[in-house]
Amino acid sequence: MRDFLPAEKARRERVLAVIRDRYRAHGFDEIETPVMEDYDRLHAGIGGDNEKLAFTVLKRGLDAEAIVAAAADPAGVDTRALSDLGLRYDLTVPLARFYATHRAELGAVFRSIQMAPVWRAERPQKGRYRQFVQCDIDIIGDATGRAEAELLTASLDTLDALGLEGGSIRINDRRALDWMLDSFGFTAEERPGVLITIDKLDKIGPAGVVTTLRQAQGPDGQAQGPGGGGPGAAAVDAFEKFLLRPQTREYRPYGEGQIRKALPEGAPDAIVAHLVAIGEAVGAARAAAGSESGVSGIPLVFDPFLVRGMGYYTGTIFELAHPSVDYSLGGGGRYDGMIGRFLGQDVPAVGFSIGFERIVDLLESTEDATASAIVLVHDRDLPVAELVAVKAALVAGGARVRLEQRPKNLKALLERAAADGYTSFASVGAGQTAGDLQIKPLD
Amino acid sequence: MRDFLPAEKARRERVLAVIRDRYRAHGFDEIETPVMEDYDRLHAGIGGDNEKLAFTVLKRGLDAEAIVAAAADPAGVDTRALSDLGLRYDLTVPLARFYATHRAELGAVFRSIQMAPVWRAERPQKGRYRQFVQCDIDIIGDATGRAEAELLTASLDTLDALGLEGGSIRINDRRALDWMLDSFGFTAEERPGVLITIDKLDKIGPAGVVTTLRQAQGPDGQAQGPGGGGPGAAAVDAFEKFLLRPQTREYRPYGEGQIRKALPEGAPDAIVAHLVAIGEAVGAARAAAGSESGVSGIPLVFDPFLVRGMGYYTGTIFELAHPSVDYSLGGGGRYDGMIGRFLGQDVPAVGFSIGFERIVDLLESTEDATASAIVLVHDRDLPVAELVAVKAALVAGGARVRLEQRPKNLKALLERAAADGYTSFASVGAGQTAGDLQIKPLD
Asked: Best of A95, A391, A409, A425 to disrupt the B interface by mutation (most B CBs within 10 Å)?
């Protein structure tokens, strides 16, 4: 967990303000949920591995008897008996709970923004924090590709506004993955394990994927069924042949021809048409907004091997890439089954999460240079009323003003102020008003 | 704990943005600390009653033995053995810890803004929340009245910017209170109890204060010393005479004459001069900023009976009032001893906290009316690419745009959009571009 000092905090708030402004412009509405959620809701099995990392809040007023009872089971401590609340580990479980609670107060299609911290008890390591901010947008109640088009258009616009032009989005569909694995001969039971392995493609390469799938087989080369080992040898052979075929993975330009080329022959028309329509819509929106890339150069890439880890995805999935870094800057997908877990009635939903912490690290400090920010240096014995009057007049004129009593080392002081975003300085003496000051640039 | 729906969340964010903008203009810098602090720091005795309301986070990986041991003491459960972290219950303890950690990276005078949630395990009741936002500004490292003048000027300017003109600040000094109680004959041991009673003046009235002090005496009318009863009868008599003297409590205009009139005769010059200088500085700043109230009508009121509950105040104390409500909208004071608890070296500090939740409730919804916010109504079968292209063109032109598929009840839909801050609507049909739309006002 980190403290944020002034310069870093200001940078984070500027990035959040840009994201909020752009997503709001695209018709999304910000909501906020409490930091603590019910223990049972956090541990309902939706959050995958993240559930295990949830911080748990001690129930108040527990007596000794209750505490001893919680520790009585030799199978393990009954944390639930000690706690009824926990800190959220993501924003998706709270959103599903929020929607189930407030559905009657929301429109038929609800477009939400959430920008808020989440907590995971990770082991401390570089770039991993126990408290970090997530920025999620979600569209609940729209089963059509219009929702994906709105999500992706808004996210690309936001990246542009942050000065991260040139970003692209890899896209796939879980139904395409399922169909593809079916076509190679994998069974439905083998599918989750195979997807976990394919998800490592970027890390271990195609050969690594095939080896891992082979190693998971039983010694006789036969499939061992769920929990018993890996997938069948024939299916792995078919998959290997497809994976290692001599073809680039850069299926550009995005469109039906390239999507069909990227998949085994005979891909279902409905899935392909869905992916094509999303691309056309994003392209049309980019062109209408005057983006230079236009329809022909839309920043979408179809990736038939994109998996995305979470178990709850049911359709389109996407991942945000930028040429400056080799890790993803965000991602998301369609999760039509999850809201139903809380509401008791299925509602379609699709979400996109920007990797806020990664993007903040990537962006250079971009202090708002348009505003005038003045360091007002004064002597110790200048009457307070005179001093604050000069300051107040400058503030009323639109400036940001920091008072500094003249130190021995003025240079160090001004350097610190520049790091905090101040752009100029002036000395104020007895009898001077704001109009008398000589304001000089800091540089 | 509450969910915030779009309209309420937008209102909260607008208020926060105004506060941030004004305090930054006055030279304060925003910082952020983690939501969880070390258990021992939260329970160091600084937070008064709020400490007892802190939420405690369960230590991870506790085994049954450790849990049973925590419950073994008949005197009570050892919460500390179950926990090493807790949720902050205020922003002052984290600020003191932050300053002690980062002092070398901060200027000689550090002006901080903190706007963040805190948690208290209050019993749920109207207007009391278990998670609520505090907005604190603090100046650390300036022992002079310049700090008070900056705090109060910035806070009054912020209130003005929020549309809460007409606010006023009641001011007193703990040293004036101490001197006054001394002069009536209360002992230093009796003082804390007497201050707690005086703090109830607004609730129970002068007669109630005197009765309470009398009831705390022993049956012989003699002082019973610390812990044994109330203050001495002679001191209570002297205080009663002063408290009930026939004089208004509205000591205006603010200045030396009125401050001396409000106190018993012979008040120490240094304390009076300190209070007078703060008033002159705030008045000069208000006049220089062009406030209509000017120097003669500065919104300060000296209140010799203002106490402010927290035990850590050492000098000036203040409370923010507004004519529209009979409760305080914020307050603060000087706490020169507290930073030393963490740093091992005394550093002067003074802070002011705006009652964010109260102010949000007070302000009417003030959606930013300058931006164009358009509901774009479309038929179900309009091609997605056409639709999102029209939306993108409007967004690129500076509007905020929400798509809505034409419902049976268009009126209800438009009313909901108006509540969310949308100002106009248009229908879009096949073949239309953004330029073809007839945009009509929502009202």
From this structure: A391
